[in-house]
Amino acid sequence: MAALLRTLIVFPLLLVTVHSQFWLPNPFRGSNDDQDKNPGLKLPGITIPLLGSIGIGGDTDKADQGANPPFETDYKGLWMLLSEDSGANAMHVNLLPNNKIIMFDATAFRMSTLKLPNGECIPYKDDKKREKEDCWSHGVEFDYNTGYKRPLKMVFDPWCSSGGLTADGILISTGGWKDGTRTVRYMDTCEDCDWKEFQYTLADARWYATQITLADGGFFLVGGRKSFSYEYVPPEGKSNAESIKFPFLYQTTDIEENNLYPFVHLSSDGNVFIFANNRSVLLNPKTNKIIKEFPILEGGSRNYPASAMSALLPIKLYVKNAETIAVEVIICGGAKPQAYTLAQNSIFIPALQDCNRLQITKPNAQWKKETMPTPRVMGDMLNLPNGDLLILNGAKQGTSAWYSAEDPNLNPILYSPYKPMNQRFKVLNPTVIPRMYHSAVALLPDGKVLVGGSNPNPGYNFTAKYPTEMRIEKFSPPYLDPALAVHRPIIIEEASETTLTYEKNFMVQFRLGESFVDKRDVKVSMYAPPFTTHGYSMNQRLLFLGKVDVRKVFPTVYQVNVVAPPTREVAPAGYYLIFVVYRGVPSKAISEEKIEENDGKTEKDSGLSNAEKNNNAKAKPKKVPVFCKVNEHYTNL
User: Where does the record place Low complexity bias (predicted)?
Assistant: First the structure.
C-alpha cells in the first residue's frame, strides 16, 4: 500500500477522487499560483521546453475559446443496442467507481424479468393483507461493457426515490413509496455487495424528493409529496428526529403539484440553489436561511409532473484570480399549467420549447431565454466532457406520470452553450425506442451515453402502446465521429500523476497524433457522475480546470499541468471522471482511487455545519476498496 501521504492511487477506468480536507481550503487565488517557475521539465540528461517556448503558446486565462475552434463534424451520432434485457426497468441509474452501473425500479409491481438468486423470495402482504412472496429482483448491478447483470435485493420500496455517491463511492438511496418512504439504503462496490437498508431513518416521507451533496460531504434532502421540508441524511444506522420546515415548497405547490423533484444545485460559495415550479431561491445550509430569491421563470411549470430538465453549465476554473467563480443554471422544457389535468382526460398539449439560463452568482441575475428545435417534457440532460450538453428522451406532448404523454421525442439535441445565439442547437440521429416516463441515462468513461428505461404503465406491460422497456442502448455523440479519431487524446495513465489535492497542481500526460498543437486548444475537464431519475441528474457537475502549461514531452506525447479545484464548495470531495479535451474532442477518462486520512479535527473544535454534524462519520479515516483493472474494448460494442 502506498504511503499515507498519497491521497490517490491510479486504477484504470475507474473514477477520480478529490482529496477531502476537513478544514475549508483557502479561497481561490487563481490558476497560476503554484505554477512551476522552471521553464522546462527536467528528466535525466534532458530538459523539455514548454510548448510556448517553441511557438506553441498563448494566454490560457483570457477567452473561453481556444486558439482554434472546435472541430466541426456533420456526424449526428450513433445508436447501438447493448442489451435486450436489463433485468429491471432502469427507473434510477448511477455509475459507480467499480465500472458498474446500478439500476433499480420500484418493488411495488412485484415483477421484473430477473429472479433473485438461490431461489430467495421476500415475504409481503398485498392490499388485502394476504401473505405473498416476491421472488423477483428489482435492481441490478449492470456491466456496461458486457451487458452482464447481477441481481440485487431490495426490501423497502425505492419507487421515485433519490440518491448520490458518498466521498468514498458508496451509493446512498433515500426515500421511496409506502414502506420505503423514510428508508435510507447503502450500496458499496465489492464484488458481492448488496443493499443495506434502514427503514426508519428519515424524519419525513421522501417520495419524489431531491438529494444533493454539500461542500462538507453531507447529503441535503429536500421535498417530496406533501413534505414541505428538508433534512440532512444522518450517519449510517442513525435516524433524524425532525426535519426543517421549508415554506417555499408549500408556496410553490399548485393544484397539480408541479414542484416535485425540485432542481437543486450547489453553488461555488457553498449555498444551495433550489428551483420548484417556476420560482427559485438561494439557501444557506449552515444557517438554514434563504438569502436570495430569483426572478420567476415565466412560461409554465418545470417540475414533476410538468418535468423539465436542469443542469449546471460547465464551471470554469481557468479565469485568473477570480473573486467569484461563476455558476450558471440551465432549465429546458416542461409543461403549461393544467397540462397534467388535461392529460388525464387524454388531451395532450404541446410541451414547452424554451431553454432558460440564470447565472446565480450575479447580484441581479436575470433569466435568458432561447428556443429548442422541438418541445420536450420529461427528457434528460447530461453534461458532456467537452462542455456541450446532450438533451434526449421524453415526449413532445403532455407531462410525466402514467399514460400522460404522447409523441415521443426520438431525436437527441446537442446544445453548445458558448456558441453564438441561434447556433447552439443541433438535432442528432433518432433512436427507434421511445423513452417515455421512467427513463434514465448515464455518461460513461469512454464518452458514450448509456440510455435505458421507460415504463409509463402501472406494472410490467410489454404489449402497451408504450411498453415497459428493458432494452439498453449506447449513444455516441458527435465528438465520437470516426473521422475525428485522429484528434482524440489518449491519456497515458501510468505517466500521469496520482494525487489531487485542493488548489494544487497535478499533471496528466497524453498522446495526440498532431504535428502542431496550440496549448490553448487543450483543456482538462472533470465530471461528477450523477444519480439520474425522472429526467433529473442529481449532483451532476462538470468543471474545466485551471491550466498552468502544456509541454511537448516527445513526438506526439504531451503533458498538461492543471490546478485541482480550489475548494470543496466548487467540487465536493468524491469520485470524478477526468478527461483531456482537444478542440472539442475528449479522451477516454482517466480514473483513480482514493485513500483518505483523518486530519485530527473533532466535531467540537471544527466548527461543523448542520450537515457536517449529521455526517461526522465522513470525517473518520476510511480506506476505499482496491479495484482491479478493467480491460475495455469499446469497438466491440
Answer: 610-620
Give the Å distances, CA to CA, from 269 to 292, 296, 608.
13, 22, 16
pLDDT digits (tens, 9 = 90+) for 528-586: 999 999 999 999 999 999 988 999 999 999 999 999 999 999 999 999 999 999 999 99
Three-state DSSP at 368 gives strand
Three-class secondary structure of residue 4 per DSSP: coil
Sign of CA dihedral 164, 537, 530, 287: negative
Pairing of strands 592-596, 585-586: unpaired
Give the C-alpha separation, 298 to 296, whole Å. 6
- How far apart are alpha carbons 208 and 187 in whole angstroms? 20
Would you call 279 exposed, middle or buried from its count of C-beta atoms within 10 A (0-12, 13-18, 19+)? middle
450, 382 Cβ separation under 8 angstroms: no
The residue written with cell numbers 491550466 in the block is 547
Q: Catalogue all structural domains in the chain, each as residue range(s) with its CATH number.
A: 8-72+488-605 (2.60.40.10)
The three-state DSSP-derived secondary structure of 256-302 is CECCECCEEEECCCCCEEEEECCEEEEEECCCCEEEEECCCCCCCEC
pTM for this model (two decimals): 0.86
Running DSSP on this structure, what letter comes out for residue 341? H
**If we measure between CA atoms, which residue out of 569, 589, 571, 572 comes closest to residue 580?**
589
